[in-house]
Automatic annotation (TrEMBL):
A Pfam family that the UniProt record links to this protein: Adap_comp_sub
UniProt similarity note: Belongs to the adaptor complexes medium subunit family.
Organism: Papaver atlanticum
Protein name, entry field: MHD domain-containing protein
Top-level taxonomy: Eukaryota, Viridiplantae, Streptophyta, Embryophyta, Tracheophyta
Keyword Protein transport: yes
Mode of membrane association: Peripheral membrane protein
A GO BP entry: endosomal transport
PROSITE patterns (UniProt xref): MHD
């Protein structure tokens, strides 16, 4: 994040009051000099760039005005009837819901305004976190012209567009990282990435000593999570390998102001993000350093490794992947399946060594996005090979993040049909095939399918699945296809589940507490006219919630896709033994410099994200892909 500098940070509560702010004078000095040069070279242009930063009162006023103008804290994200020229929604790009601008009115000089952009907005209830990075004045002028342009939208290849402008600003990515980290700190959600280790059952005696000393796991070993380390300097000046405890969640309460100030001062000295690892910073704050904590004279200790490890050496790699899918079973709508993954690492190595490894098979791993930890250096590129070297931090960390497609095929595929034979009775059918094309040692540890009906109360149910067990609640049916302890490996199975379901008659229900009390009760026959009150509503998100929540119980907000005719089933599963994308690490190819014999373990874990089977006989939302010829024409 060397190209990222932060000018200011603001944190607002849900009453739109600034509860914390921080300005970095060193970065502001650079901004004022840049503004001075830009204004001197503008040749009398009336569009002068202001070098000022608003105080908390001015910032709050501008944020509230934008909230009223844009309909919510995030805004519309696209140009609507209520959009005004000069506003973010006038640009007609959804990214303006996350990267916003403010029009600041100076309190001391009435009538004088200036423009503040780009403000990275991260909402972490009940707080709004806004980060203002340093950009060049020409970038600010470019966005201001977009806000006053007569046309709307951003076209591919356009000379001045918001996507191309943001691609020229790496500080935006760094600002999002800062905002998310601060959100984790103030809400106490700083979690260590999970790393799994093969732990063999102990048989005692000499065998344990021999196998443990050379790093050979048992053939019957099962992967278990490794606790995040507590960096406590020992008397010899290192971090003891045995000093671990259950501290994966750094804090269970909102961080106080002093703790937040300490974190920002340590993580962003002079406004430049260095190390955003809250556990490292907390350890330094609590434990400090001893006289023996200094690294060797000829070696430079990186910011992400405040303490040197001492103890038994080993390297653990765990690939965590999450599979997302939308299965339609329709000729006109293609199924969609994607994979989001990360390579977690824990390198318990003494000193400041470098670890290198090749990432083979990238061309066959179906990866689209690939990013690395700041400690990593990419030294070799190729069509099917990418070598990397990294100086590992202490404890668990995310070495690589990536996104791609499922290279093997969907682990669960099939269809779901629900037909309402009357207003309160329906017949459904599931036909699924699990682990088709998957070979041993890939194992599906469990698989569960859930049919949610938050709008309706189930009063009777009848069904007989070909495999598994059924359980029901008032608003859902759960089908446990594969249970824990009875996983399937090396084979595929087919599962069918026909049945009928009966709901309680529809009744008039009260609106959720999020809706306005003045609406009272709304019946099934009430008007669904969306244009009736939209012009009088200050918060468009409240209006949309009211429309979606009309005649629905509060629980419906947790299941937005079960609104009106959208019916679906959600699949949850866990798979071990391989990755879905094809990403893999060969432990034998991992080398450490200076050379040291270190056992290397590699494990994988795949779980389901939003894995949805849409009702083939009902309505369903989907994204229509543009024809390839149209995309090629736009790129010319």
């Amino acid at each position: 994040m060397a190209n990222c500098s932060i000018r200011a940070i603001w944190i607002l509560n849900n009453q739109d009051t600034v509860v914390f702010s921080r300005r970095f004078s060193v970065v502001e000095r650079r901004w004022r000099l840049a503004c001075k040069r830009e204004n001197e070279n503008s040749n009398g242009d009336n569009n002068q760039i202001s070098p000022l930063l608003p105080n908390d009162s001015e910032f709050t006023t501008a944020f509230i005005e934008r909230k009223k103008r844009e309909g919510s804290s995030r805004g519309f994200g696209f140009r609507v009837v209520q959009s005004s020229e000069g506003s973010d929604s006038w640009v007609d790009d959804p990214i303006t819901r996350h990267i916003i601008s403010l029009h600041i009115n100076k309190e001391e000089e009435e009538g004088e305004k200036y423009f503040l952009w780009p403000l990275v907005l991260h909402i972490r209830n009940p707080y709004c976190i806004l980060i203002l990075p340093l950009v060049e004045p020409r970038h600010l002028k470019s966005y201001e012209r977009m806000c006053n342009r007569s046309d709307c939208g951003s076209c591919i290849g356009e000379e001045e567009s918001l996507p191309s402008l943001l691609l020229d600003l790496p500080c935006i990515t760094g600002s999002f990282m800062v905002a998310h980290t601060i959100g984790d700190v103030i809400t106490g959600d700083s979690l260590e990435p999970e790393v799994l280790a093969s732990v063999a059952p102990s048989v005692g005696g000499l065998l344990d000593s021999l196998t443990g000393s050379i790093g050979i796991p048992s053939m019957t070993a099962r992967a278990k999570p490794v606790a995040a380390p507590v960096a406590v300097p020992n008397s010899s000046g290192g971090v003891s390998g045995a000093a671990t405890s259950d501290t994966s969640k750094i804090s269970s309460r909102l961080a106080d102001r002093d703790a937040l100030c300490t974190f920002i001062s340590s993580a962003l000295p002079f406004g430049t993000p260095l190390d955003l690892n809250y556990s490292n910073i907390s350890a330094v704050r609590v434990n400090g350093f001893s006289s023996t904590d200094t690294p060797p004279v000829d070696m430079k200790q990186p910011a992400w490794k405040p303490y040197l490890y001492r103890g038994k050496q080993r390297i653990l790699f765990t690939i965590h992947e999450t599979v997302y899918a939308s299965m339609y079973d329709r000729d006109d709508i293609p199924d969609s399946i994607s994979v989001s993954g990360q390579v977690n690492c824990r390198a318990e190595l003494e000193g400041l060594p470098d670890v290198s490894l090749p990432l083979n098979g990238l061309s066959t791993s179906h990866l689209e996005v690939l990013s690395f930890h700041p400690c990593a250096q990419i030294s070799e590129h190729g069509v099917d090979k990418q070598a990397m070297m990294f100086s590992p931090p202490v404890g668990n960390f995310v070495l690589i993040r990536y996104q791609g497609f499922c290279g093997i095929g969907p682990p669960v595929k099939g269809f779901y049909q629900l037909s309402m034979v009357s207003e309160d009775e329906g017949a459904f059918l599931f036909k699924l095939r699990l682990m088709e094309g998957y070979k041993s040692p890939i194992t599906m540890e469990y698989c569960t399918l859930t049919m949610p009906f938050p709008r309706r109360k189930i009063i009777s149910f009848n069904g007989n699945p070909s495999i598994g067990t059924i359980s029901t609640t008032e608003h859902s049916v759960e089908w446990k296809i594969v249970t824990v302890g009875r996983g399937i490996s090396g084979k595929s199975i087919e599962a069918t589940f026909p049945g009928t379901i009966k709901f309680a008659p529809k009744t008039t229900q009260k609106l959720s507490t999020l809706s306005r009390p003045a609406h009272g009760l709304i019946t099934e026959d009430d008007s669904d006219d969306e244009s009736e009150n939209i012009n009088n509503i200050a918060n468009i998100e409240d209006f949309l919630l009211e429309k979606m929540n009309k005649d629905l119980p509060p629980v419906d907000l947790e299941e937005p896709f079960c609104w009106q005719s959208y019916n679906y089933a959600r699949v949850s599963f866990k798979i071990s033994g391989a990755t879905m994308s094809g990403m893999s690490i060969d432990p034998k190819s991992v080398t450490v410099y200076p050379t040291v014999k270190t056992p290397v373990e590699f494990t994988t874990q795949v779980s389901s994200g939003d894995y949805i089977l849409w009702n083939t006989l009902g309505k369903c939302p989907f994204v229509a892909a543009a024809p390839r010829e149209q995309l090629q024409q736009q790129q010319k």
